[in-house]
C-alpha cells in the first residue's frame, strides 16, 4: 500500500496586521501583557478590503499549483473548509476553481468540488476525505486540493475580538507525498455542545470560557480513542505536536494535559514522583469532583517542573510561532501550527525525515480529532519554499481607527465604503457583485 499524505502546502495571510499589545490593548484600556503573556499573541492578520475567503484561498492554491507545476487536469477534487462562507448553496470551491481557471490552461470540469463544515476541524476532515478517496482508488492518479480559508472576525466588543485573524492554507493531498504521510489510525472525541456557533449570522455567539473546557474535554477523548487503535503514547514519541491554536494560551493548556496523560505509568512519572508525587488515580477517590480537584493540583505542580518545561519548549513551543503573529485562522489554524513546527526544524537544521508528528485538530460544537503523521524525505524542500515570513513582514500595520473601518467594511450588515490600504499585485481580488448578487473576482497582474 503506497503512502498517502500532504505533498505540499502554501499559506496566504490577510494583508493587514493589527498589533495587539501596542494598538489594540491601549484602545481597549487593557494591560498589553494580557495579549503577549496571557493569550500568547503579538499581532493578528486582517483581510484588506479587496480580500475575502475566496481571494485568500485562490491565492494560496495558485502559489501551490505554480510551484508544483500542476495543471487543472492533475486535480481530481477541490475541497474547501471554512466557517466564514457567504453562500448556503454554491460552495466556495466553485468560486476558487473559477479564479484558478482564469490563470491556468484547462479547467476543473471533472474535479469533484465541495465545502466541509464542522467549525475549525473541517480542514482536517477535508484531508481525511481526500485520503479516503485516494485509498479507495477513485482518484485516477490525480491529487486533491484542500483549502482551509477563514476570516475569523468577532463582533466588536466580544471577548473573542482579541483572537481574530484571517488567512488561508492550501494543501495538496497525494500518493507518495513529499511532506508527511498520514496515519491510518485516528481518534475522535465528539459531542453535541453549545460553546461557539453562528446560526445564520456572520459573527459567532461564543461562551468563551466554556469553549476552552470543551476543547480540552473533547481532545482528551480523542487521545484515548486514538490510543485504543494505535499505541499507548509516550511524550518522546513525537518530534512536534501541532494543536488547533485559537490562541497560543489555549495550547499551553492542551500541552500540559497531553504531557500528564502520556507520562502516566512511565519512568517519567516515577522520576517526577520524588518532586510532586504520583498522579492521582480515579479509583483512589470517592467521587469524580474530588478526583478532578486532585488532578488539577497535580497539574499545577507539573507545569513548573524542569522535565515538563523542557518537553514543552522542544515539542509544543515551535508550533506556535506563526500563530502568535497571525491570530486564529479557524480551519487553517492547526495546519499553520504544523507548518510552524516544520519551519522551526528547518531553521534549526534538524534532521526530521522518518520522525512523527501528532496532530490535535478541534472544532467547536464540538469535535476533536487525533492522528499521527510521518515526516517524508522531501519535507525540507517543501518548507524552504514557504514565503510566510516575507508575507508577514509586508503586512500594512493598521491603527485602531483603521481597524474599526476595515472591520466595518467586512461586516455583511454594514454598507461602508473603505479605501484599500495596500495595492494588490499578482493576486486575485474581490472586484464587485454580479446580477444574482454573486461575488465577482479578478486577477490583478
Ligand atoms: N498578564 C498576564 N496574563 C494575563 C493578564 C496580564 N495582565 N491579564 C489576563 N491574563 C491571562 C488570564 O489569566 C488568562 O489566562 P488563563 O486562562 O491561563 O488564566 C488569559 O490571559 C486570558 O485572559 P481572560 O481570561 O481574562 O480573557 P477574556 O476573558 O477576555 O477571554 C477568551 C479569553 C475566553 C479566550 C476570549 O478571547 C474568547 O472568547 N475567545 C474566543 C473563543 C476561543 O477562542 N475559545 C478557544 C476554545 S474554542 C476553539 O478553539 C475553537 C475556535 O477556534 C474558536
UniProtKB/TrEMBL annotation:
Top-level lineage group: Archaea
Annotated PANTHER family: 3-HYDROXY-3-METHYLGLUTARYL COENZYME A SYNTHASE, HYDROXYMETHYLGLUTARYL-COA SYNTHASE
CDD domains: init_cond_enzymes (cd00827)
Lineage: Archaea, Methanobacteriati, Methanobacteriota, Stenosarchaea group, Halobacteria
Domain Hydroxymethylglutaryl-coenzyme A synthase C-terminal: 195-411
Domain Hydroxymethylglutaryl-coenzyme A synthase N-terminal: residue ranges: 3-175
InterPro entries associated with the record: HMG-CoA_Synthase-like, HMG_CoA_synt_C_dom, HMG_CoA_synth_N, Thiolase-like
Organism: Halorarum halophilum
Protein name: Hydroxymethylglutaryl-CoA synthase family protein
